[in-house]
Amino acid sequence: MSKDLQDILVRGTAWNNKLRVFAARTTNVTEEMRVRHDMFPTATAALGRTAAVGFMMGAMLKGEERLVIQVKGDGPIGQVVVNANAKGELRGYVDNPRAHHATNQYGKLDVAGAVGTSGFIHVTKDLGLKEPYRGSVPIISGELGEDFTYYFSVSEQTPSCVAVGVLVDSDNSVLQAGGLIIQVLPGLSDQDITKLEEAIASMPSVTQMLSEGKTPEDMIAQLVGDDFTIHEQMDLKFKCNCSYERLSGTLISVGAHELQSMIDDNETIELVCHYCNEKYYFTPEQIKILKEQAR
Ligand code: ZN
Fold this sequence. Notes:
The chain is an alpha+beta fold. The chain has two domains: 2-238, Hsp33 domain (3-Layer(bab) Sandwich), CATH 3.55.30.10; 244-294, HSP33 redox switch-like (CBS domain Like). Helix content is 35%, strand content 29%. A hairpin with a 5-residue loop joins strand 8 (160-168) and strand 9. It is elongated. The termini are far apart. Residues 240, 242, 273, 275-276, 278 line the site of zinc ion.
């Protein structure tokens, strides 16, 4: 049912411009990543939760700006990486998509067990400046929502509430995925802070709201009431920028000497894009041409 809906993100403000709000439904993109990388459910949940944050952080950027989130925990799935831009486009992967599959004591997918409970979250933003922006925080729970809440308050000095969720079906496909970020701007009264904390405490999970058919806009309303304005709505999609030309460039960069030994082996080379799992093949004849360019 939900898979027929376009993945979307809405961005707005609430409570007299004292709150910034973001909400996204990312079900289709999360399912596409699951299929592309042939992931087990805990990896799907970890990548899907990180991707939901990635899309919303992407919506905080503008123009050609982009960002990379790396969750480097000590768990069996290895690092979780997503790369997002301001146009609702994202790609991502985990190192070991089939390394872990377990539920926790609450019967839910054990994301912290897959990601690990110690390590770091690194965020790199290319804002078109000389040096990229870099922010890092230690992993505090491994469930990711809490970790990104911590990231925003510590690394970006913006008190925030991050809620993300992925619901996986018994056949491992993605039923629902999405997220919500509320950021507190300066000037919010103590009374409103208390009101917001109470609303957050009694909020249903993101996947529960999506399962009930709520839109991203409905999720915001659930938390802040009617007093909000949507400034932008965007379609979300999985998009990788790899190509035969790009991978050719990677091959050329290994140098003429290495390329000659590949030609001598006389075998077709397979290169796989980490981000989207597309495979690119280079025959010895094609490598000969690339070797000419390597000089
Ligand atoms: Zn790719």
